[in-house]
């Protein structure tokens, strides 16, 4: 089999041009991804865990967890591992043992859909409240469900504006409320305070459902005891991502919904399974990867990973600020927010950029050497940078935000203050 080495990946992969050199195409993909990894610091996938064992041992057959995690039928499935993963996440969140249910999803979006679908079935006339910092899947899900969405302002640091939430709830108080709080917003890793949100609903005598989209911060905050799903929390559902902090090498996640709230799904006779999840067939490999990540590190191992990542994030804020590039982070966060660097830096480094603000996410596996190289590139590209410049929309005169109403039956403990410039 011959193959021209200069062929682009698109041409080499073109299925109309047989014979195809499969090994070359796969090598090309891996080479490109490896080359990009060193400068990829803007997205939240942990890169420190080695899952080769699972991929090698299980990668040769179909593992289909079709139906409910409690189902036992079918040939090759990993539901026993899925149940163990869900139970572990339940436990670190202190979810009541007699009112828990959940499953391994395709990712944060499916988890949000499953939870909001369950909530909307119970409260079909509810307004779904979400902040402008919520993930883009939320308005999409509101549309899919044919529900009415109510947008709430977010503060410059990404946390929900509770005064605006209260005003919106007051305006729509005739209808039940489904409120989406975010624990780790996509751009700044802000954490909405679910205790304050519940208090606002109670104050206006509005019933409904509180969903927490904890895609990024769910596991690390739960390990710290700062995100809890116990009886006092008043939370109806939570989603976490599996390919972010837990580093699964395939998109996946976990959704947890109170058993008393979820839809139970019908029995499907030809598969002998219960249709309680969003998709029919479900990826058993993802459940095995999550189980492996948890089994090989345990609570303490993951707590240590989170702590190391936060230490690196603090180091990053310090180094950027010392270099005259004002950066900040929420104290619990892996995410470092900074003014968007000049184009040569953005060309080399894969950052997440939103207008004049960018972020780096110091996920486990990102190294000091990468941060040092990034800071050196910024310094070289902007020798005359204005040291007084601050990230867009962030009121540094008022930062740190200072103490807010103390969370009493606290579920998500919000950051008390922000670290960084000025
Ligand atoms: C807050 C939040 N929610 C949900 C998601 C969606 O996750 P996924 O891409 O796995 O659907 C993300 C992903 O970045 C996120 O940041």
UniProtKB/TrEMBL annotation:
Gene Ontology MF annotations: histidine decarboxylase activity
Keyword Lyase in annotation: yes
UniProt KW keywords: Decarboxylase, Lyase, Pyridoxal phosphate
Leading EC class: lyase
SUPFAM superfamilies: PLP-dependent transferases (SSF53383)
Chain residue ranges for the region called Disordered: 384-422
InterPro entries: Group_II_Decarboxylase, PyrdxlP-dep_de-COase, PyrdxlP-dep_Trfase, PyrdxlP-dep_Trfase_major
Keyword Lyase: yes
Pfam families in alphabetical order: Pyridoxal_deC
E.C. number: 4.1.1.22
Necessary cofactors: pyridoxal 5'-phosphate
Compositionally skewed regions (Basic and acidic residues) per UniProt: 384-400
Family of this protein: Belongs to the group II decarboxylase family.
Name the UniProt record assigns to this protein: Histidine decarboxylase
Organism: Micromonospora echinofusca
């Amino acid at each position: 089999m011959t193959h021209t080495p200069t062929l682009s990946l698109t041409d080499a992969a073109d299925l109309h041009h047989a014979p195809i050199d499969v090994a070359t195409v796969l090598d090309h993909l891996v080479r490109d991804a490896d080359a990009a990894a060193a400068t990829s610091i803007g997205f939240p996938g942990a890169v420190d865990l080695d899952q080769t064992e699972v991929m090698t041992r299980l990668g040769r057959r179909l593992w289909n967890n079709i139906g409910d995690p409690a189902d036992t039928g079918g040939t090759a499935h990993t539901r026993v591992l899925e149940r163990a993963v869900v139970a572990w996440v339940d436990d670190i969140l202190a979810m009541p043992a007699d009112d828990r249910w959940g499953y391994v999803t395709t990712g944060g979006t499916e988890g949000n859909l499953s939870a909001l679908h369950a909530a909307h079935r119970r409260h079909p006339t509810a307004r779904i409240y979400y902040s402008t910092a919520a993930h883009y899947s939320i308005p999409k899900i509101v549309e899919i469900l044919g529900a009415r969405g109510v947008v709430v302002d977010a503060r410059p640091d990404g946390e929900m504006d509770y005064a605006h939430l209260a005003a919106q709830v007051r305006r729509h108080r005739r209808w039940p409320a489904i409120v989406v709080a975010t624990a780790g917003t996509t751009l700044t890793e802000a954490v909405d305070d679910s205790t304050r949100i519940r208090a606002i609903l109670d104050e206006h005598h509005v019933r409904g459902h509180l969903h927490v989209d904890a895609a990024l911060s769910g596991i690390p905050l739960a390990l710290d005891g700062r995100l809890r799903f116990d009886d006092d929390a008043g939370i109806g559902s939570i989603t976490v991502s599996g390919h972010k902090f837990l580093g699964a090498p395939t998109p996946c996640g976990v959704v947890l919904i109170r058993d008393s709230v979820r839809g139970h799904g019908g029995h499907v006779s030809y598969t002998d399974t219960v249709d309680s999840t969003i998709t029919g067939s479900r990826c058993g490999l993802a459940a095995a990867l999550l189980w492996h990540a948890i089994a090989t590190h345990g609570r303490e191992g993951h707590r240590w990973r989170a702590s190391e990542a936060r230490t690196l994030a603090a180091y990053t804020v310090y180094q950027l600020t010392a270099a005259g590039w004002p950066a900040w982070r929420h104290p619990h966060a892996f995410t470092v927010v900074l003014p968007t660097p000049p184009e040569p830096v953005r060309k080399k480094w894969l950052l997440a950029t939103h207008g004049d603000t960018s972020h780096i996410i110091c996920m486990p596996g990102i190294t000091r050497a990468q941060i040092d190289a990034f800071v050196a590139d910024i310094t070289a590209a902007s020798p005359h940078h204005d040291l007084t410049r601050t990230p867009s929309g962030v009121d540094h005169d008022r930062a740190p935000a200072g103490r807010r109403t103390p969370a009493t039956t606290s579920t998500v403990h919000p950051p008390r203050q922000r670290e960084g410039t000025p």
